[in-house]
C-alpha cells in the first residue's frame, strides 16, 4: 500500500553560546549559534511499526550538541558542524547520514574610547553565517557555507532594459534604478573524505567567508549592473577564483523593488525619471533570482 521513501528527524533550533576566557589577558571571546541536527538511516520502522528501538531521541541529539560544544572548538562553524555530523554517523551503526546546520549570529566586539573592549559586544547586522554539513557514512563530509540576510541597497548604478516586450509587458525600461536585495549566498566545498581532512582545511573557512562577504559587497557596489542575474554571476565567478577548494557558488537574491511615484497631480510636481527623489518601497511581490555557478570541469552540484 505504502512505504517510507524518505525520512529524517532530529532537533531544530538548538541555541548555543560559548565563551572563551583568556586567563592571561582577561579578554573574552563569544560565539552564539543555532544548530539543527537531522539524522537518516535505518529508521523506517520507527514510522511504520512504532519501533522506537531505532530512535536516538531528539533530546539526546540536543544533549550531544552541548557536550561536543564543551569538548571541542565551536569555530569555525564548518569544523564544529563536521564534528557533530561525524559523531552521529560513527557512534550509531544504523545512522548513515547526519545533516548539521550551524547558524552563527553576529557579536562584534565594542570599541570603547578607541580600545577593543575585553567582554562587551553588539549586534552590528542581522546577517548570519550559515554552515551545513552532511556526514555520509563511507563517503565523507559535504560542507556548504554561506551568508544569509545581508540587506544591501544601491541608489544608482543599476539598469534593466532590453528584456522581452510583448502583450504582457508594462514595466518600462530603465537605465537608472534603485537596487536592493537580501543576500543569500552559499558556497560548496569539494567533498572532504574525512573529519581529518576538514581539520586540515580549518584556516580556509574564515578566509573564504570574509572573501565571499567582501566580494559580494564590492561587486554589488561597483558593478554597473545590467540586471540582478548579471551581477550575481560576477560575484559567483570571483568567489570561485579566490578559493580553489570551492566547487559551486549559489545566490538567491530577492529583487526588492522601489517604485517611482508620479506626483504630477499635485501642482505639476516633478518626481519621475531624472527628477525622482521620493520612492515607494515595495514589500511584495518581489523578484527572486537564483543561480548556481560551478567550477569548469566539475559536475553540476548534487542535491543533498
Ligand atoms: O534585474 C532584474 N532581473 C529581472 O529578471 C527582472 N524582472 C523585472 O521585472 N525586473 C527585473 N530586474
Layout of strands and helices, then pairs:
Layout: E1 9-21, E2 28-41, H1 44-48, H2 58-71, H3 77-91, E3 95-105, E4 108-112, E5 115-122, E6 128-136, E7 140-154, E8 179-189, H4 195-200, H5 202-222, H6 228-242, E9 246-255, E10 258-260, E11 279-281, E12 287-294
Antiparallel strand pairs: 1-2, 2-3, 3-6, 4-5, 6-7, 7-8, 8-9, 9-12, 10-11
Bound molecules: uric acid (URC).
| DSSP, total strands | 12
The CATH homology group name of the largest domain: Urate Oxidase
CATH class placement of the largest domain: Alpha Beta
Number of helices: 6
How many domain modules? 2
Run of helices and strands: EEHHHEEEEEEHHHEEEE
User: Ranges with pLDDT <50 over ≥5 residues?
Assistant: none
Main pleated-sheet profile? 8 strands, antiparallel
How far apart, in Å, are the first and last alpha carbons? 27 Å
Radius of gyration: 23 Å
Query: What is bound: which ligands?
Result: uric acid
Structure classification: alpha+beta
Mean pLDDT score, rounded?
Answer: 97
Oligomer status = single chain
CATH topology of the largest domain, by name, is Urate Oxidase
Measured as a percent range, the helix fraction is 25-40%
CATH architecture of the largest domain: Roll
Question: What percent strand?
Answer: 35-45%
Name the shape in a single word.
globular
Widest β-sheet, arrangement of strands:
1-2-3-6-7-8-9-12
Function: Catalyzes the oxidation of uric acid to 5-hydroxyisourate, which is further processed to form (S)-allantoin.
Active site: 11, 58, 257
Family: Belongs to the uricase family.
Catalytic activity: urate + O2 + H2O = 5-hydroxyisourate + H2O2
